[in-house]
Specification:
Elements lengths: L14 E3 L18 E5 L8 H11 L6 E5 L1 H10 L4 H10 L6 E4 L2 E4 L1 H12 L10 E8 L5 E4 L4 H8 L9 E3 L2 E4 L9 H6 L4 E5 L14 H17 L5 E3 L11 H28 L7
Parallel strand pairs: 1-8, 2-3, 2-10, 3-6, 10-11
Antiparallel strand pairs: 4-5, 6-7, 6-9, 8-9
Helix pairs in contact: 1-3, 1-8, 3-8, 4-5
């Protein structure tokens, strides 16, 4: 989920990626096994909290060599995988105009998936998923059965566009003949993916709403979805050494004030998790740089 506003419909037709650079998956060799993985979950504008987590990890020399991202986590994960400094990612988040990701069609306001693709290209050019300084994997869900799919090779912008294709807001993306949409539909926080890719220590960030925060007046379908999302995360939690879950309240927004709040709360939650992170690293025979 990229935006928390109800946009309705899907802008444009289905984007099709079937060339030789279309996203795919290539297993890591034994020598490519990652040490520390950072998993950034889905959550729309709540995902700005990821930026606060990145600030704390960077300041404390905790350097993940694998990034796994779903939806907004894939967008921010692209910048982190490219070793963009956390301060620069924060500035990008503050300066961002979220309206650029909203299009207009005959059905009204819709999500503009092409803008997501353009944003990624602007930031990292044509760099493929396997071409980043940090290993990078993006998750998406197959349309229809919501099966989890992992991309770590090929067109980065296409993979991220698919991962952030929120149903009902953004058009799905066709990759090698298969249609995909938001990675949130399969696993909001794909923790097991990092473990399956061989990570020794897995730090995961869940930016979804706490079930206890669901207000009585929330639409019933929202509450059902939030509880289902929480259950999916709970089923994955055992694969993480540390799960960071900032409390961002229930309702999200796209204004700068909300973005700053989310970043600050992500930072606070990461600071609180530092002792557990250091403990996990020590247990694995690893250490932070600072």
């Amino acid at each position: 989920m990229l935006l928390a506003v109800s946009l309705g419909g899907c802008a444009g037709g289905i984007a099709d990626f079937s060339g030789p650079d279309a996203p795919g998956f290539v297993a890591y060799t034994a020598t490519q096994r990652p040490r520390i993985a950072l998993v950034l979950g889905a959550g729309g504008p709540r995902g700005f909290a990821h930026v606060g987590v990145l600030k704390v990890l960077e300041a404390n020399g905790i350097d993940a060599d694998l990034v796994v991202g779903a939806s907004i986590g894939a967008m921010i994960g692209t910048l982190y995988a490219d070793r963009t400094p956390a301060s620069e990612i924060e500035q990008i988040a503050i300066d961002l105009d979220p309206k650029r990701f909203i299009g207009v069609s005959s059905s009204g306001l819709t999500g503009n998936g092409a803008a997501i693709e353009s944003f990624i290209i602007e930031r990292v050019g044509g760099k493929p998923l396997q071409g980043f300084p940090r290993k990078f994997a993006v998750t998406a869900a197959t349309l229809g059965d919501n099966a989890l799919t992992v991309f770590n090779h090929g067109n980065t912008a296409a993979a991220v566009r698919a991962s952030a294709a929120t149903p009902g807001q953004f058009a799905p993306v066709r990759i090698r003949g298969v249609e995909y949409h938001d990675g949130d539909e399969a696993q909001p926080v794909p923790i097991k993916v990092a473990r399956d890719l061989g990570a020794q220590v897995v730090i995961a960030v869940d930016v979804s709403a706490y079930v206890r925060a669901i207000p009585p007046q929330a639409p019933p379908e929202w509450a059902v979805r939030d509880r289902a999302r929480a259950a999916k995360v709970a089923a994955q939690e055992g694969y993480a050494d540390v799960l960071i879950h900032p409390d961002l309240g229930y309702y999200a927004g796209i204004k700068e004030e909300y973005r700053r709040m989310a970043i600050q709360r992500g930072e606070s939650a990461a600071l609180a998790a530092l002792p557990k992170i250091r403990e996990a690293l020590a247990k694995a025979g690893l250490s932070a740089g600072k």
